[in-house]
Amino acid sequence: MPITFNVISRKNIQKPNDPPKYYADIVGNGETTLADLAKYASTVSTVSKADILAVLESTFSKIADDVADGKIVYVGEYFTLQAGGSSEGKETGDEVNASSIKSVRTVFRPGKMIKDALKLATFQKKG
Q1: Among 11, 30, 66, 105, which residue's Cβ finds the most Cβ atoms within 10 Å?
Q2: What predicted TM-score, i.e. pTM, was given to this entire model?
Q3: Strand, helix or coil for residue 13
Q4: 3-state class (DSSP) for residue 17
Q5: Residue 12, Cβ neighbours under 10 Å: how many?
Q6: 3-state secondary structure of 42
Q7: Mean pLDDT for each 10-residue chunk of the chain (127 residues)?
Q8: How far apart are CA 47 and CA 34, in angstroms?
Q9: DSSP letters along 59-117, please?
Q10: CA pair distance 113, 77, nearest whole angstrom
């Protein structure tokens, strides 16, 4: 199934008098839930959907806990997750402390399996 995109126009704010340019904007098309993953896995293995769902739930719970503990979590050749963030600048290193951190985010890095899958992706204009 191809990846769907819309066409959007954007003006260059540094050149407000120039005409807008048009870009492809990739949009989500459907969703896959944890239950969907478990159902699929049960069809290609001898393990029940309930057992697979229990393993996935405990695995993702552990991933969340480890990222919150500051660990880099490597999920095989699929992806890597870790915490990242931004902080307020201070005049000296001694002034930097935990309250200097202003936001925290999850850093996702696709692994070889996801990168290879995206290399084979096809695209289709929505509509």
Answers
A1: 66
A2: 0.77
A3: coil
A4: coil
A5: 11
A6: helix
A7: 92 93 92 93 95 95 96 95 95 94 96 96 93
A8: 15
A9: HHHHHHHHHHTTPPEEETTTEEEEEEEEE---SSGGG--GGGEEEEEEEEEE-HHHHHH
A10: 6
